[in-house]
Amino acid sequence: MSVSMSGTVLTRDLFRADGTLIASRGEIVDLPYLKHVAACACRGARERPLHETALADAVLEAFEEPALKHLVGSDEARACVADAICDVRFPQAVWDELELLRREDAARYQHAVWTALIASRLFRAALGEAPGLSRLAGGALVHDVGMRHTAARLSFKRDHLSRSEALALEDHPLIGALTLASSLGDAPAVHFALLHHTRAGLGYPRVAGRPPLRGLDVVALSSAFAALLAPRAYRLQPFDARGAADQLLDEARAGHFDLRAVRLLIHCLRGARGTLAELQLPQSSTGFRPPRNHHGLAPAGVAAARA
């Protein structure tokens, strides 16, 4: 990894889903510690393909989701996505993380599956049948596993987060990266877990240097798009696909996402016909955006009024 970042102090022991201790309470975990965990990972364990796991059923169900119909609704699009995702392979310890996530937090489990499908559609449109596509799709699938270690109550909070709650959430990329690195070593999935919220230096964790893996832009965008399409406690309704694309286009123009990745998303939403170079971006926002959306911290004026 060619970036640097500050660390965090663990407030409790960090265990993998199989019970293996990754780091102890009070440990300072940072990028050097992450590299150490990756270097010590036990490689050589048998890797199971996704189609041999219970996750295969969740993928098939996601193909039928109305929210994803513009991306994976056609037979051609489904075939593209299936080709990319069916051969995702992980050691059993990683599949255990996803299984535990399924039992503990259904919404986050759904988010993992949806992100993987969306990212696979975008990767196939951009890269065709390039080798290594399944590793990118697999990284998208597990990019948010650190959320399993975040306070469950935050998943059900209807109002804005307090500053302390927001700070607690900001630890999940590093926690997820540590969890994956303990099984995978220095793999694309570890990078995606660590950096999917960096948003060109405007998000977290704060990093110095250029993040690796251009596929990170696609995974970060796919994660955000999947979250906007899904029900959440902090907003009245989910965005529709056009509204989510409008939102992400606005955020890309503000520097939070790579505009090329947003163009690729819109290209795929339109059926990926023609070339990406010919794509004309929408001139106005016409999609649905929910009127109440308490995502993130409260605006300064609202927070002051509550104090």
Give an account of the 3D structure.
The protein has 307 residues and is mainly alpha-helical. It has a domain at 7-218: Hypothetical protein af1432, CATH 1.10.3210. It contains 14 helices and eight strands. It has a two-stranded antiparallel sheet. Helix 4 (75-85) packs across helix 6 and helix 11 packs across helix 12. It is globular.
Instruction: Tell how many strands the DSSP assignment holds.
Output: 8
Q: Compute the separation of the termini in Å.
A: 42 Å
CATH class of the domain at 7-218: Mainly Alpha
Ranges with pLDDT <50 over ≥5 residues? Answer: 300-307
What is the general shape?
Answer: globular
CATH third-level topology of the domain at 7-218 = Hypothetical protein af1432
Q: Structural class per helix/strand content?
A: mainly alpha
Rg, Cα atoms, Å: 19 Å
Strand content: 5-15%
Q: Supply the CATH architecture of the domain at 7-218.
A: Orthogonal Bundle
Summarize the structure.
49% of the residues lie in helices and 6% in strands.
List the helices and strands and how they pair.
Blueprint: E1 4-5, E2 8-9, E3 14-15, E4 21-23, E5 28-29, H1 31-39, E6 47-49, H2 55-62, H3 69-72, H4 75-85, E7 89-91, H5 92-104, H6 106-127, H7 133-141, H8 163-169, H9 172-184, H10 188-195, E8 207-208, H11 215-229, H12 241-253, H13 259-269, H14 300-306
Antiparallel strand pairs: 1-8, 2-5, 3-4, 6-7
Helix pairs in contact: 1-9, 2-6, 4-6, 5-6, 6-7, 6-11, 6-13, 7-10, 9-10, 11-12, 12-13
